[in-house]
Design goal:
mainly alpha; Rna Polymerase Sigma Factor, Chain: A; 2 domains; about 70% helix
């Protein structure tokens, strides 16, 4: 199998067991970070390819493999965001040079979500990239500080500080937005 280049001989079932255990979770996580389910598929595929190629220990579902997978998926997602930002900047320069007006169309067919979910998702935009990623891990992925620290390479104290600061920002922002919007009833 091409995934096991460099002479590694592992039973195919080991990788399948890990993929079965973590694929869905990683897809959701990567999609939340990138905002793109199709990009999340690429990110998760690359994550499993790296697992097959670089993982040194026993290839079986467990906390160490989970933390490693989330860390790699996290890094792949951040790289994707940075690359997309660069592409967007290049596109805008090209548009300005050519005098075009219309930017490329955004993704179509997005599922409908509640107004509250949209409000919270928009509030996440006020956070830095690091804060947003940690909030996603804590709130949406329901990870512990220890797991987040292992996945991101930060200390548990740093994770706690960043999350505390981020949550204060979100509460303040959502409180301001709630006060400014009339109920209309």
């Amino acid at each position: 199998m091409a995934l096991f280049s460099k002479g590694k001989k592992r039973p195919h079932g080991e990788l399948e067991a890990v993929v079965a255990a973590y694929e869905r979770q990683l897809l959701v996580y990567a999609a939340r970070i990138t905002g793109s389910p199709s990009s999340a598929e690429d990110i998760v595929q690359e994550t499993f390819i790296k697992l097959a190629d670089k993982w040194k220990g026993p290839l079986e579902p467990g906390p160490q493999v989970s933390a490693w997978l989330y860390r790699v998926a996290h890094n792949e997602a951040i790289d994707f965001i940075r690359n997309e930002k660069r592409r967007g900047e290049l596109h805008m320069r090209h548009v300005e040079e050519r005098g075009e007006i219309e930017p490329p169309s955004a993704g179509q067919g997005a599922p409908r979500v509640s107004e509250e979910a949209v409000r919270v998702a928009r509030a996440l935009d006020i956070l830095s990239e690091r804060e947003r990623n940690l909030v996603v891990l804590k709130v949406y992925e329901e990870r512990s500080y220890k797991e987040i620290a292992e996945m991101t390479g930060l200390s548990m104290g740093n994770v706690g500080f960043i999350l505390h600061t981020a949550m204060k920002k979100l509460v303040a922002h959502l409180g301001e937005k709630g006060k400014g919007e009339g109920n209309g009833d």
